[in-house]
UniProtKB/TrEMBL annotation:
It comes from Nitratireductor arenosus. Pfam families: BBP2_2 (PF10082). This is Outer membrane beta-barrel protein. Residues 153-164 have a biased composition (Acidic residues). The lineage of its organism: Bacteria, Pseudomonadati, Pseudomonadota, Alphaproteobacteria, Hyphomicrobiales. Residues 134-146 have a biased composition (Basic and acidic residues). Residues 59-186 are annotated as: Disordered. InterPro entries: BBP2_2.
Amino acid sequence: MTRTPKSMREKTGVPLLRGAATGLFAAAFCTGVSTMPALGQESDLRGGVLEETVNRSLLSSGGIRPGEEVSADNEAAPRGYVPVSEGALPDEAEDGADPAGRERSIFADSDDDDPFADAPRPARRPSMARQNRRQTESEIAAERQQSRTPGTTDEDEEAGEEVVETTASVRAPTLDSLDEEANSSAEVLNGRVEAIENRDLDAEEAPYAPLGLRLGTFDVTATLDQGVRWTSNVDSSPSGEQGWLSETQLRLNAVSDWSRHAARASLYGTFLKSVSGADYSQAQGGLDTALDLDLGGGYAASAGFAYTLRPETASSPVVIVGTASQPLQHGLTGTLGLRKDVGKLRLSATGLVDREFYSDAELSSGGTLSQEERNATLASVALRIGYEVAPALVPFVETEIGRRFYDLEIDSSGFARSADRLAVRGGATFDFGEKLSGEVSAGWLRETFDDTRLAPVSGPTVDARLAWSPVRRTTVTLTGSTTVEGTTSAGESGSILYSGGLALSREARANLLLEASIGADWRDYIGTRDSELGLRAEAGATWWFNRYAGINGRLRHETFRSTLPNRDWQASSVYLGLRLQR
């Protein structure tokens, strides 16, 4: 082996020890011998290698410096040694390096000395580390391409930031980590499918209310009660007897379905017939209608008509001696009103015509007795002024002027009973929706007869129509009225009847209705100290089988007390029947 000249070692400034060079060559030679011939060919180990050639190859500047990437063209050639310190090696021109800048292998000679130069060299297979590095680099390039902003090129990214490459091995992701479908939760394939015929499960507000019939623009409902009643006093008289009565009651209600105006009508009738005990029969009924018109411009009109038919009760102030049955009492009532709103003022005028007449009474001895002298007509006009202190509260004052006309100017006793009427009232109307609605008033009433021998009928008046709902499905109703009653008794002016009632209705369940009521009637005879008091109480319930049929029952007790002789009576009754509605 040729020694390296001392001048060369001094020129490069790199002291090389002979022992070190000899050891390096020996290690390389042993490795080449122990390797398979194919690998030896891939490493270019041919012929003898001089120490000068080794040193020149190690000190050459044509090798790849640390940090540079190995290209695909020079992957087959091994890297040359490149020291870190600059200036450690001479320039390639001074060392006789290849002017073309080609790398030289530390084990390669010139092509002139290679006997196999003309033969083609077999291609080297890349090592496993290089394959992994290639795969990692391609994956990084693909991720960079996906995260690149649209419109950005490789040159823009290289100009905008410094790319630091590393030769360290990067852990390859698992195969299923990039599969989003495999990592997502499985969808439910057997989910519940809703029924084709979907039923509305919302609770109905009134599931047992009547459906009604559509007649033109009116909704008509019909109710029929048929049952049996036992009573301890069939005719509510001082000498009444007990008995079983068949009771039939029919009621028809019609309500308009108009957008601007409103109309309603009610027709009812009751028929009683004894089936056991005392012989008794009775029929009563009535009709009540109302019409509300919106005339625009703050004007509104109202009209009403009512008719009642009922037998005169034993508690009537007029006592007819020797009659087989009480005469029938007819009542006709018509109203017409006009309202005007001026700011918060509520102005109204209401006209009233009330006609009351009686059929002839049948005498027990045979024949009839005329009741013509009791027939009378009341005509009046009420003027009202109200002020709206709140949308739901309107206090008012009212004045009523009218006259009562008797069909006979002079009755059988020689008295002229026609009279002038004057009344003053004060009250308020309420409209809190379903919570509270109605009207209540109080005042003073006076009727002065044409015959000065008769004392005027004068006294306080109380009237009320209130509906209050303290809780849902519960309604409390308060009613009150003041009525002037005439008489045919000689020298007597008549009486004032005050009636009041309180009723409670509660829907305990959708198909169970509970009802209870109490009432009182007090009659004051004008010009005397006589008076009469009637009390009543009732409790009942209705249980619906379905929307069309139900069973109902009630208990009732009445008591009548009078300062006049032979007028007291009381009655208790129990009713059970079937109610049908449509």
